[in-house]
Amino acid sequence: MSNKKTIIAFDLYGTLLSTSSIAHELALHFGDEKAQSIAALWRRYQLEYTFRMNSMSLYKPFLEITHTSLYHALSEHKLSLSEADVGRIMNAYNSLTIFPDVSSGLENLAKDTEIIAHVFSNGTNEMVSESVNKSPQLSGFRQLFKELITVEEVECYKPHPKVYEHLVRKARGDVRREDREGVWLVSGNPFDIVGARAVGLQTCWVDRMGDGWMDRLGELASGGPHVVVKGVDEAVREIQRMSRS
């Protein structure tokens, strides 16, 4: 067994930070029901654009992807916003709140000297830094994260193998098999889990809805999550337990 410290890399948007305030901003213009529909479609196209860019071996920064996919979602609803209003909605990414289970999990982790925490995101360096440092609640844990690791340097998106190798290289210094041991990804996104497992990382899926694992692509690739939990607090406890067993 490796004597290296355990690494936990937390996905940011949708795992640590809730994007519900984005829907709140949209609701100021379109009402609650339509805002929820726009927000869901926006997220769908935001991810779809990254997958398509990967397939075409193209890259545009996540901020541009996010901005463009919002216009796509609005167009599909036959709605529009001024550039100023779009700017205010985009700025909501800088004031996202954490999920209720995050605070206790990170407080627990802050007392653990045998685990090193990172943030690992599709976002740009600037976008992730702003989101973490300006979040009303997550900013209090900024010193817990050794690094805010993004895909910007490798110019491709999750679940491309290069981004997970980049994570390991940043966290361990190399990407040999032994360097991947004890490196955990905690994410609420099934595609992220399957991608990380495909390159040999340990994976913990956050299933807040309690619906269970339904993504069948893992059966054709590397498998599903090693651990399924209901929140970040439980994720930390499970990884602590497994790293010491």
From TrEMBL:
It comes from the Eukaryota. It holds the Pfam family HAD_2. Keywords: Hydrolase. One of its GO terms (molecular function) is phosphatase activity. Belongs to the HAD-like hydrolase superfamily. S-2-haloalkanoic acid dehalogenase family. PANTHER family: HALOACID DEHALOGENASE, TYPE II (AFU_ORTHOLOGUE AFUA_2G07750)-RELATED (PTHR43316:SF3), HYDROLASE, HALOACID DELAHOGENASE-RELATED (PTHR43316). This is Haloacid dehalogenase, type II. The lineage of its organism: Eukaryota, Fungi, Dikarya, Ascomycota, Pezizomycotina.
